[in-house]
Amino acid sequence: MFQTFKEWFWLERFWLPPTMKWSDLDDHDGYVFVKPSHLYVTIPYAFGLLIIRQIFEKFVATPLAKSLGIKEVVHKKIMPNEVLENFFKHSTRRPSQSDVYGLAKKCNLTECQVERWFRIRRTQDKTCRVKKFQETCWRFAFYLMLTVAGIAFLYDKPWVYDLWEVWNGYPKQPLLRSQYWYYILEMSFYWSLLFSLGFDVKRKDFLANIIHHLAAISLMSFSWCANYIRSGTLVMIVHDVADIWLESAKMFSYAGWKQTCNILFCIFSATFFITRFIIFPFWILYCTLILPLHYVEPFFSYAFLNLQLMILQVLHFYWGFLILKMFRRYIFTKNVQDVRSDDEEDKEEEEEEEEEAPKGKEIDCLKNGIGAAQNLIPNGQHGH
What is the C-alpha to C-alpha distance for residues 262 and 288, in angstroms, rounded to an integer? Predict the structure, then answer.
């Protein structure tokens, strides 16, 4: 059954223009052509990148974070309380006033002590800025490397300046060594991002990131197997060039360099909208949707390629909407914040700051319940 499916999956009519055979893409006369088996190496390379990432974060990103004044925050600790912990995990992280009253009675605590326990407990699950900076610094470094590599690989290629050359001779276009490494590095990086989603900082667009990474890997794999290498490299460079500005803006945001962050964010926004809403639809999609019809008749992989690119454009609209939300926040508050990620955590940071200087009412509550609080919070942390 597997062999039957494999033979059906690789039928030439799905992948190649009419009258073309896989044998037409066999290596000959020193020319090498793409083969699906080339892509197997991206999986071990992805795990290799995860190892390199750990080394990079430890020996490069962490010292850089410290030099920028980003400190590892040690959150307050609380003694375990089974009743409150079960409610926290299985009901809600933010109990209502009636819930607080019931929990206080059940645990023989004051309402203020219960509210304080939940505030401190929420901060324990909060990802610190050093962790966010490490992840962002790694993505910035790799996007920068990919962008530089892409420019180095493409600057002298005729199809960058003349889109008709993208399809000249298709599909009998030999694979260049620079194209091979550009694709392999890009795909390995996206595999590594997909593998690391489980332990990276959770963001609002977690599902969109999964879709984006899978769409990127699917698009690159498909374009490789159908030998859409020339258009594929154009798609990659158009996307990579904007990402370096976003990651650098976030790095300086975590460091508290607001003015630098705002400048970099404006550069990113301009680059994003130019590349994703002008160059991509009017250059890339025009190249893949219109120009091929002058060389070949429409066929399955032509339609499937453009379907994937259109899905990618839909994701561009989604992220463009988030960028506009950030712009709105910047205009009214003069502060750029990544709306994708940390709204909930920012609220918890504010609450943690309030813990350092509680209001008079809370101080009175804590004084009244000091005896019970000693069983709740160790080392007298409740009384300041």
Answer: 35
Between CA 221 and CA 232 the distance in angstroms is 10
Q: How far apart are CA 82 and CA 88, in angstroms?
A: 10
**Residue 174 or 329, more confident:** 174
Please give the Cα distance from 291 to 163 (Å, whole number).
8
Q: Which helix (DSSP H) or strand (DSSP E) does residue 307 occupy?
A: helix 300-333
103: left (phi over 0), alpha (psi -120 to 50) or beta: alpha
pTM of the model: 0.77
Q: Which amino acid is at 35?
A: K
Position 300: which residue type? F
For residues 369 and 24, give the distance between their C-alpha atoms in angstroms, rounded to a whole number.
Answer: 83
Cis peptide before 17 (omega within 30 of 0): no
The model's pLDDT over 213-230, given as tens digits with 9 standing for 90+, comes to: 888 899 999 999 999 999
Helix (H, G, I), strand (E, B) or coil at 28: strand
258: which residues sit within 8 A by CB, 6+ positions away?
Answer: 335, 336
What is the C-alpha to C-alpha distance for residues 227 and 175, in angstroms, rounded to an integer? Answer: 9
Q: How many CA atoms lie within 13 A of 174 on its CB side?
A: 8
CA atoms within a 13 Å half-sphere pointing along the CA-CB vector of 296? 23
Task: Give me 282's structure tokens.
Answer: 């009017």
Task: Please confirm whether the linkage preceding 158 is cis (ω < 30° from 0).
Answer: no
